[in-house]
Design goal:
This protein is mainly beta. It is 0% helix and 52% strand. It has strands at residues 2-7, 10-13, 18-26, 32-39, 46-51, 58-60, 68-73, 78-83, 92-100, 113-114, 118-123.
Amino acid sequence: QVQLVESGGGLVQAGGSLRLSCAASGRTFSSYAMGWFRQAPGKEREFVAAINWSGGSTYYKDSLKGRFTISRDNAKNTMYLQMNSLKPEDTAVYYCAAIEGRIAWTIATMFDYWGQGTQVTVSS
């Protein structure tokens, strides 16, 4: 089992940047593929990005490519989401998630473990 804790959210103006972190504890971090999801008020949770166990393969929601970058540091048991050129529509609670295995998925229901979320608010 793995425990996940997100951090790095906050309030930022449009055009700004934030870097989210997801710290994992428990079983070996490299045993898990990881993902970021987000949920805006009144909307369903949606896929943001995913990364395989080694960091060698990454996947993004099409509309976020070029602005968001997912990465991981297995030595630090941490995953990151660098978010640049933020827009008000990026406002949401961002969740990190883990699935045991090497392959990354883009579907929320495939993930076994979730963090508590971190709020990102982008003002116009």
